[in-house]
Specification:
Layout: E1 3-6, E2 16-20, E3 36-41, H1 42-46, E4 53-59, E5 73-77, E6 87-92, E7 95-104, E8 107-111, E9 120-121, E10 128-138
Length: about 150
């Protein structure tokens, strides 16, 4: 089961963090470049429609193959019209979930990104509300280093 913990949005002042022009190598280490390009406001970068955007914390593993893990924060935009293949936050029969919205013809489906979970065919027997489209996932890395 994948559940969403909705977080109450709180207006906040800009949070400017330093953005360096040097990239960080994910391969072999390279010499560090201490040149500061400018500051970056994460609100400006992650939130296109502030009045229609909320954060939700993901719990569960039904979307791991889409890169959404338990504990991640989802940046969800309610102003966007959900389209085929969008990842959406939905409420199905009173229970919140995050899934990929897919269509086969006119038939909508909520599709997990983990083969252990079933696809949900959205028929008239379901009470469904799409709360928004997931624009970004903010990963919280908690895994300890493994011994080599």
């Amino acid at each position: 089961m994948f559940s969403i913990q909705f977080l109450t949005p709180q207006p906040s002042p800009p949070l400017h963090l330093p953005l360096y022009t040097a990239t960080v190598s994910a391969g072999f280490p390279s010499p560090a470049d201490d040149y500061l390009e400018r500051s970056l406001d994460l609100n400006e970068y992650l939130v296109e429609h502030p009045a229609a955007t909320f954060l939700a914390r993901a719990e569960g593993d039904s979307m791991v193959e889409a890169g959404i893990h338990s504990g991640d924060l989802l940046v969800v935009d309610r102003s966007l019209e959900p389209r085929d293949d969008d990842i959406v936050v939905a409420v199905v029969n009173g229970e919140s979930t995050v899934k990929r919205l897919c269509y086969r013809g006119d038939q909508p489906f909520l599709v997990p990104a983990n083969p252990s979970y079933a696809t949900i065919a959205l028929t008239d027997s379901f009470d469904v509300q799409i709360w928004g489209v997931v624009k970004f996932t903010i990963r919280h890395h908690r895994k300890p280093c493994s011994p080599w």
